[in-house]
Amino acid sequence: SVNKLDMLHSGALTKAASGKVARKPKSTGTDGLAGKIVCSGGMPLIFVGTEVAPWSKTGGLGDVLGGLPPALAARGHRVMTIAPRYDQYKDGWDTCVVIQIRVGDQIETARYFHCYKRGVDRVFVDHP
After folding, report:
1. Domains of the chain (ranges plus CATH)?
2. pLDDT of 14 above 80
3. What number of helices (H) and strands (E) belong to the chain?
């Protein structure tokens, strides 16, 4: 089944997924590479982690999810990160998407918050 978050991003992801992928001919240089794969239309990329800088960071993972996605977006890719919402992030707005998930005998509720910074969709999952 398709949820509301899927519907929010399906148009953009469909456009990004329609990019052509082509293989360049074998390299004859001294770099030792047999060839490169070039994606002319960008690729949809989603990074899921427990932390993302500058919102939450305790180690290197937060730095990676804070820096790599904007660099990939600058190269033409459609990039999204998903991480827990640990605090009231002033730049994350409530998407009004609420989901309920059955975990064992209980129903758990989660909300999605979103912000768009440096070419990257940042999604935060709030589970009180």
Report:
1. 4-126 (3.40.50.2000)
2. no
3. 2, 7
The CA distance from 86 to 88, in Å, is: 7
Element (H, E) at 72: helix 60-74
Is residue 106 pLDDT above 50, yes or no? Answer: yes
Q: How far apart are CA 67 and CA 58, in angstroms?
A: 15
- Residue 57 pLDDT: 87
Contacts of 19 (CB under 8 A, 6+ apart): 39, 40, 41, 42, 43
pTM of the model: 0.67
Distance CA 24, CA 35 (A): 6
**CA 58/CA 62 separation, integer angstroms:** 7
